[in-house]
């Protein structure tokens, strides 16, 4: 992916970006629980929530969206790479962007079942600070909190 272009999500991107999210969540070898919302609801969420928030970026290769990154404050809230583009460095490029945009530190949640994501984030300097039973996430699936840099939650975990 030598010619990947990263830019903010635009109104005309929302359906295609939502499709990348959906394909990633439902790929054959996905370690993620199935989405609890329909494809239509996910498209609406991209258009009505993520777009107006202005904190979502898309990676474009050869004229198509291949990955999506959303920041929510200092949380790396969404990072999804199209299964056809996985393993080619676009996810790493987006993590680097997130670090550049939040030099004070980042935090994220990933599902405990998603061991590939946990290893990916560890390679990028994130460390685990806690695990939960998933009671507080929409899917009610056990998850892992990870942080990078001088994020306040890293400091709390050392106390």
Summarize this structure briefly:
This protein has 5 helices and 7 strands.
Q: What is the overall pLDDT average? A: 93
**Largest sheet properties:** 4 strands, antiparallel
Total E-strand runs: 7
Span between N and C termini?
A: 42 Å
Rg for CA atoms: 15 Å
Poorly predicted runs: none
Helix/strand-derived category reads alpha+beta
Q: Given the C-alpha coordinates, what overall shape results?
A: globular
Oligomeric status of the shown chains? single chain
Strands across the major sheet, in which order? 1-2-3-4
| N-to-C series of helices and strands | EHHEEEHEHEEH
Describe this structure in words.
With 159 residues, the protein is α+β, with helices and mostly antiparallel strands. Helices cover 35% and strands 28% of the residues. It contains five helices and seven strands. The chain has a four-stranded antiparallel sheet. Helix 1 packs across helix 2. It is globular, with a radius of gyration of 15 Å. The N and C termini lie far apart (42 Å). The mean pLDDT is 93.
Give the helix/strand layout.
Blueprint: E1 5-8, H1 14-25, H2 39-53, E2 56-61, E3 64-72, E4 75-81, H3 90-101, E5 106-111, H4 115-123, E6 127-132, E7 143-148, H5 152-158
Helix pairs in contact: 1-2
Key words describing this protein structure:
35% helix; 159 residues
């Amino acid at each position: 992916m030598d010619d990947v272009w990263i830019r903010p999500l635009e109104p005309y991107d929302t359906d295609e970006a939502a499709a990348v999210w959906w394909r990633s969540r439902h790929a054959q070898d996905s370690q993620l629980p199935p989405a609890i919302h329909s494809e239509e609801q996910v498209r609406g969420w991209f258009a009505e929530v993520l777009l107006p928030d202005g904190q979502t970026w898309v990676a474009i290769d050869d004229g198509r969206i291949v990955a999506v990154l959303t920041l929510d404050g200092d949380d790396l809230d969404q990072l999804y790479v199209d299964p056809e583009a996985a393993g080619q460095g676009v996810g790493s490029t987006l993590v680097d962007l997130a670090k550049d945009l939040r030099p004070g530190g980042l935090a994220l949640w990933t599902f405990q079942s998603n061991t590939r994501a946990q290893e990916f984030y560890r390679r990028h300097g994130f460390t685990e600070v806690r695990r939960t039973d998933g009671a507080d996430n929409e899917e009610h699936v056990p998850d892992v909190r990870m942080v990078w840099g001088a994020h306040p939650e890293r400091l709390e975990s050392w106390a």
